[in-house]
Design goal:
Elements: H1 6-38, H2 45-78, H3 82-85, H4 88-115, H5 123-129, H6 132-145
Helix pairs in contact: 1-2, 1-4, 1-5, 2-4, 4-6
Amino acid sequence: MIELSDTAYLWIKALHIISVIAWMAGLLYLPRLFVYHVDADPGSELSETLKIMERRLLKLIMNPAMLASFFFGILLLLGLGGAAWSAAWIHLKLLLVAGLLVAHMAMGRWRREFAEDRNTRPRKFYRIANEVPTVLMAGIIIFAVVRPF
């Protein structure tokens, strides 16, 4: 455990929220790009444009935002008192955060498949996948703010 001043805690929390918002924006937008990409003919101008957009979104926004989210989140976790670790809310929140990480990694794999013109999934799959980060995010926020358990 580390001792954070009130000012340091607030700065770390603000940076954590900013990075999570950027990460979530990517997690919500990338599957939407995949929905459009499904209908693009491989090798077409649209397909190639979507490949660039998907790669840049993942590499330049999502990956750095995810790493920053984890960095600042870990700092916040290290500042928690011992009593918080015995509460169920923190464990459930971290389980849902792990779900976001799994979704992120899956989207990275799907992006590579599109980049190699190997996608076999229908548009409906990506429409459903687009909802997963929203559900996980809602649970994370509820556990972190309301702390119901």
